[in-house]
Give the backbone structure.
Amino acid sequence: MGLSYAIHKERCPAVPTRAHEVISGNVVEITALLSNTSVRTLILGIDQSGRIVQHDRNAPEVLEYDSESLAGTPLSDVVAGPTGPGSPLDGLLDAAGSGREATAVLAVRVRRVSPVEAVASVQPMQGDDPELTALVILRMPPPGDERFVDPALMRHALLDDTFRRIGSTLDLDQMSRGLIGILVPHFCNAAGLLVLDSLAATDEFPVHPPDGSQLLRRTAVSADDGDPAWDAAFPTGEVLLYPPGTPYVQCMETGKAVRETQLDEARAVSIAESWLRRPVARLLTGASMLLLPLTAKDSALGFFVCTRKVGFRHFDDYDSEIGMEFAARAAIFIDNARRYNRERTTALTLQRSLLPTGLSAPPSVEVKHRYLPGSKLVEVGGDWYESIELPGARVALVVGDVAGHGVRAAVTMGQMRTAIHTLAMLELTPTESLQQLNELMTSLGDREPHFATCAYALYDAVTGSCEIASAGHLPPLLVRPGGGSEFLDVAPAPPLGVGEGPIESRVYEIDDGSLLVLYTDGLVEDRNRDIDDGLSYLQGIFGPGATSRSLDDLCRAAMAGVFAHHQRDDIAILIARLSRIAADQHVSWTLPHELVSARQARALLREPLERWKLCDLLPTTELLVSELVTNAIRYAEGDVTLRLILARTLVCEVLDSSAALPRRRRAARDDEHGRGLQVVSQLAHRWGARWTQDGKIVWCEQLLPAGLSPGRQGASLSRPVAGCPA
């Protein structure tokens, strides 16, 4: 009557596949029943009517029949529970008679104990024996008094090959669940993992209670009986402080395994009351508990709590030995995860603090960006971007790439971004700004080799001109509203920090609604394709109709093809929709080189300020313009140009032919001059000066009154204001 299980082993998968029909139960329930390493397997051969005609030699030892009486017994007599039409057993027999494979969970009568749930699979047979219709493979967990008995099985489950799978992750939460999944059900019925709160927290300096004890965080808990009381009593993620005198504190202090062979009711109640959780006593009464410390490099990291319920073998010295070996290996992996998470958190904090948190631009310019690190392991790098709104409805758009990855490249990137932000606010031209960056990179290279590429665009929303300079960077892409696009032929220059080659800029006239795309090489470079193919692919994304799409959609489309590349470089992309401010939001006049021009300038202000409903600003604006025009006439030659711009602020600009920038100085009591710029600095929100090709511009700006917010098509003039007083 003996059937060899080895013959059919490959044909009997532990978990049903798609070819199996699951009659009752589900994959999760079936997997849980089969998860124990010492699961028993019985093989029964049945005929067309469902009677047992063959069995393996182990079946009589497990089932309630001896070897002689088992043969010829209906399979329904072996099963406890419903066996009539519509029952799981009826479904299995119907599948066997129809030549189908099927699986169900059945309650099977076994010796000495109550019925045990087993996973029953039927496999149709076609052979020389006409009586044998199908094989019934029963897989059932061993009785409680036989679990956790074989030390070889437990050692294999806990120590052989399992850490190869666990070691593939450095995420502490995922690792905790994996470790608990090894202990339950191979070593105990329920288990929990607790680690120092400082390991799971991202704070650099963990907080300890004043009594010197340590806070612990539960990162995983599991039980093989599905009782929700375990999760309710021991919630994952809880931060707690164990009371003195408990075995948990003893385990942490000594670094040795602590075993409670069997917790009597008084001991279980004492532990539960010390937590102020009396229901815990029900779970612990009569249980055997083993605490396994996690120690790495003589430092306590936490501990495992392993529990065997009533009816299962109690923990002994051999269990402690196996458990300590498992805990020692687990501690190494947890310590590695802790170090990795701390370094990763530090690097990401550095990266996020160095990259801009917000992009600024004039109301007529819309800017969006995307940043993607080079890989999941190295999430910091040297790519960066910037959009800086400048006085006079101008914006500086910058994208750069520091060679290399990691913290060193990120630190250099932060230095460059800070420098470019300062240079932009000093109102240097793109050429001058990149030359100063080149000096910075050269000085950094004296201590450690550095080089970078950078593209710098300066757009004027009043004139619609864009000045662009590049140092070793890929050319910007200009997409025009009509559907055409081109890579701008910017004058080439060496990367920053490499040489002293000249850096030149070019000026382009930009049609309203055009898109300017600045990017780093990681977007278009790929080891599997030529860079020209990458540039063509990028240009294809910004094809006809691109200027009418949202910038968020364009950013997603540009980045869509790079997520599958695991060896990619860092990527930064900056897309700007460029438009001039409305014609009615700026006005300019040319004034003769005469002292009376200051009075004329004051008179000219009334009409635009009244039209913009800014009469509240008229007295201050008259005084500011009077000082700026008077200084220009006194220290320059030729005509003077006065320009008013309504953007996010009211900007007053005075252009003259002198290249000498004004300096504010403190006038003495008997000085007749030198107080004009002091007055400007006190009345204006900001003021400054910048060079032009023909001289300089001195400007000042004032904040707009509440309720006035100019948009892209003009000011929102919702404030009912009467005409400006005479």
